[in-house]
Amino acid sequence: MDRHAKAALFDGRSLVTRQIASYRKCVPDYAQLLVDSSLDMIISVDLLLRIVEFNPAAEIAFGYKRDEVVGQSVEMLYADPNEAWRIRTSSLDEGFSGEVRNRRKNGEVFYSYLRSVGLRNESGEIIGAMGFSRDITVEKKCLAELRQAREAAEAATQAKSQFVANVSHEIRTPMTAILGFVDLLANAEAPETERRSAIQIIRRNGEHLLGIVNDILDLSKIESGKMQLERNACSPHEVVNDVAALMQVRAQARQLALRVQWDGPIPETIVTDVTRLRQVLINLVANAVKFTSAGEVRITTRMTAGPADSGASLEFEIADTGIGLTAEQLQRVFEPFTQADNSTTRRYGGTGLGLSICRHLVHMLGGELTAESVPDRGSTFRFSIPTGGLGGVRLVTSASTEIRPEAGRSPSTELPAGCRILLAEDGPDNQRLFGALLTKAGVDLRIVENGQAAVEAIMESELAERPFDVVLMDIQMPVMDGHEAVRQLRDKSCDVPIVALTANGVADERAFCLANGYDDFAAKPIDSVKLLTIIRRNLDRRPADTRRAKSLPLAAAPRHQTRASPAVRTEPAT
Q1: Rounded distance, CA 68 to CA 209, Å?
Q2: What is the pLDDT of residue 449?
Q3: How many Å from the N-terminal Cα to the C-terminal Cα in the chain?
Q4: Given strand 312-320, what is the order of strands in its sheet?
Q5: Is the distance from CB of 521 to CB of 514 less than 8 angstroms?
Q6: Residue 353, Cβ neighbours under 10 Å: how many?
Q7: Is 420-551 a domain of CATH 3.40.50.920?
Q8: How does DSSP assign 136-183, residue by residue?
Q9: Which H or E run includes 289?
Q10: Model confidence pLDDT, tens digit, residues 161-218
Q11: What is the DSSP letter of 546?
């Protein structure tokens, strides 16, 4: 290495030495810079807990300026002042790490995670403590919400598991009866009285199964927000009396009095969804009858003032003298998938969906369902719904309180001799069922198994001038479904009355069918009387010149012009 290189190296080492010396002189300044720039709160105290250091992050977290707290007791920064002394003792011994509750200048309490250590002087004596902490309030809130969500999910899972168990029990019980009595019917040696009784038991249990399915579908529609209302004028007197008449058989079977009470004048008509109102009343009255072993069930109706600017309301009250509910049971009586307790399910049956559905339906109707109960004395369920405009509506002050059986002139189910019916249905069992019912009714029946075959059969009959009088069209079929078949027929200007047959009996499906070319709607399962009533109704819609003379024993009504708004519509199943 030459002289110049050695000189350069010496100068470089000298420069580094001078810089290190300079850095060492500035160490206190750099330490303070680290304290001031830290995102964590840094607070130091002396042995008497007087604040010595309070960095900018601490100013932001606590809301105090440094000058406001230096020299003050650190106790002012804690939600519990005693906690400051506990932390001091731990810090001076072996250090402290943990969660603490602090208090801001505005009094707000927040949580922080603190790591505190003792401070010593050059002689090794303890002179105070320094703490490093970070605000964990948001993290704690998130963890609490996650924990709450997990507990809610676990509770929901448990409730749904219990629901599945209840539904399984509710399905297996009637299925056991159905299958058992079917075996009895298969025995040709069974007495006629036993066979007739078996048929009634099978029908009753089948209707119970259908009710379970309807409840599950209703809850699903409610939770998904897909349930829609159809508000029309209806008579509250007719609705209440019809529900009472329907429930009278159950009440008599349990030797209960079922009373209808009208408290003051009642509007002759109100505007609401009569189907859903009837569904709520039937469910509440049925529950009252089921849980009452002696005494009475009372339905009271009265008009009340609604909320401001909302007009009048009609209040319905269903009271019983049954087993009642405890305060704890009352708090969760409207929750889905639950009943008062598991023993209630075992003793009385049920899926625990009815009251939850009722509460949602009443809310959709514009009211609120409430309950009062005293154990062993009975329960009272009460709800109010808006009446709608009452301009020109008469108030009835004296309505009949007599519970009458379901009455009235039944629609005609007699079909004209030889009327031609086309059934489009792909299910072999349903083909046999509908075929047996319609053949017994004396119709000229043709059966096809898909929509394409239905279109071909209908167009052939039109060309041959032997048109079908009514078409029963299943919606879900192979090759071509019912919707596409109806679209093609209407595009060809074919105006034969078409009734939709579907196992999806929800109101949305019904509305879609009536707006897209169908004339009527029948939800499966459907009994023979209802099926013949629907056919009869649609026979009366077809113009006289499209039917043979022998098929018209009754005067035909003019056919409606707009398929989306037929003159007569079926009520959706409740």
Answers
A1: 74
A2: 94
A3: 105
A4: 257-263, 296-305, 312-320, 378-386, 369-374
A5: yes
A6: 22
A7: no
A8: -HHHHHHHHHHHHHHHHHHHHHHHHHHHHHHHHHHHHHHHHHHHHHHH
A9: helix 274-290
A10: 777 776 776 777 778 888 888 888 888 888 888 888 888 888 888 877 887 787 777 7
A11: G
Report helix, strand or coil for 378.
strand
Cα(466)–Cα(462) distance, integer angstroms: 6
Low-confidence ranges of the chain (pLDDT < 50): 9, 23-24, 26-27, 308, 340, 342-348, 400, 402, 404-410, 544-574
Q: Show me where the domains of the chain are located.
A: 1-33, 38-135, 145-224, 233-396, 420-551
In 3-state terms, the chain is what percent helix, strand and coil (to 5)? 45, 20, 35
pLDDT at 349: 52
Fold of domain 233-396: Heat Shock Protein 90 (3.30.565)
The candidate with the shortest Cα–Cα distance to 277, out of 367, 213, 381, is 367
**Residue with the two structure tokens 């190296």:** 9
Q: What is the pLDDT of residue 47?
A: 86
**What is the Cα–Cα distance from 113 to 41, expressed in whole angstroms?**
10
> How many residues appear in the chain?
574
Question: So what's the pLDDT on residue 373?
Answer: 92
Alpha helices in 339-424 (DSSP H): 342-348, 354-364
The CATH number of 145-224 is which of 1.10.287.130, 3.40.50.300, 3.40.1700.10, 2.130.10.10? 1.10.287.130
Single-letter amino acid, residue 128: G
Contact 52, 44 (CB under 8 A): yes
Q: Classify domain 38-135 at the CATH superfamily level.
A: PAS domain (3.30.450.20)
The overall pTM is greater than 0.70: no
Structure tokens at 547: 């039917």
Tell me which amino acid residue 33 is.
Answer: L
User: Among candidates 139, 121, 49, 32, which has minimal Cα distance to 87?
Assistant: 49
Identify the DSSP state of 74. Answer: G
Reduced to 3 states, what is the DSSP secondary structure of residue 398?
A: coil
Per-residue pLDDT, 399: 53
